[in-house]
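Reviewers of the previous submission asked for a worked example of the structure-prediction workflow described in the proposal, so we include one complete record here. The input consisted solely of the amino acid sequence. No template or homolog information was supplied to the procedure at any stage.
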Amino acid sequence: LRAPEVPSLTPAQVDVIVEDSVRTYLCAERDLPSLPEHRRLVVRHDALHADPNATIERIYAHFELPGPPPQATVKAPPPRVVDLQGLSLDEERLRRVLAPVFERYGF
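From that input alone, the workflow returned the following structure tokens.
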């Protein structure tokens, strides 16, 4: 949620980020079924993190894109743990407002 070079976020900044993220997730969840099957692909963060190269190859294959070049390798960044309490975020509230996303993907 925060780049390492940013020492802290104000509560107002956190609220803006959360509101924007919630809106984005809910809109994507709402609109995804309206896309034709061949134009949609759900990429889970854990899959991208576990094997970024295979995930990128799956994206290219699904959308029939040329590439990626064989020499293109991506290293997964180290896992980050978001300190919800440190950001004054209420996990219960997030789970409630993002319930459709949490239910669909088993979080």
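Helices lie at 11-31, 45-50, 52-62, 91-97, 99-105. We consider this example representative of the routine output the project will generate in years two and three.
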